[in-house]
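All the exercises in this workshop are built on plain-text protein records. Sequence and backbone structure share a record, each on its own labelled line. The question running through the whole workshop is how a given chain folds. The record below serves as our worked example for the rest of this section.
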Amino acid sequence: MNIRMIASDMDGTFLTANDEYSQGRFERILDNMKARDMRFVAASGRQVKNLQELFEPTIGKGYEIDFVGSNGAMVATSQEQLYAVHLSPAQLSKVIAWNAKNPESAENIIFMTGDRATYVSNHATGPVAEMVFQFYPNVKQVEKLMEVDDHILEITFVWPNDEVQQHVAELREIFGSELHATGSGFGSVDVLGKGVDKAAGLQVLQDYYDVLDSEVMTFGDNGNDLEMLQKYPNSFVMPNANSFMLTAVQNKALNTNVNDGVLETIEHFLGI
């Protein structure tokens, strides 16, 4: 098996808890990967800026990491941004109008990820609002989302975890192929541009580095990882994933996220 690129989701997959990862163990793996001309990609629903801050302790030592952020809406190397797909004002208006008319949206929170900041209603309070401030950098509370002056990568709704797949199916039926809806964990449902997902984002990096599908290894645990886990033959779902993911993906990582399952599986592959 000739692997040249390893991509991993973050929350519920690579991170153990509280934005933590085993830094020393990861850096030893990166040293081994560099010697074999292999690259590591952080592929997440989080923004690229958030991912760069997350890995700053490692990046600050000179290690290179590539990024697929906002579920594939933005792609960057360690040096430059390669790609971004934004929602048009008409698409934003259509999604926000649907949300306003949806009775089941009455209690949920909606926020938008832009190039410059993340925007949430100034009426947002409580644990969900605190979650937005934790996972998204530079959060700004605004009176009206449609008056935000920024290029928007995705719109995110937050519902109870057990309702996520139901709402994803509803949004896909309503918007068809015009937009892409996916579940991102923590009750989040993201609405992105047409054809935007982590697999499409990884393809941008594959084209940039001339990497074949058979040379990619991926890890994930949730619905927003499904496209990349099903595209690449060398893909692993986390043992702690939801049951629908464990059914959809054959290969399982060697351990859970809280037990460094991604790192353990990579070490096993590398023989270190």
Observations:
- The chain has a mean pLDDT of 91.
- The longest strand covers residues 152-158.
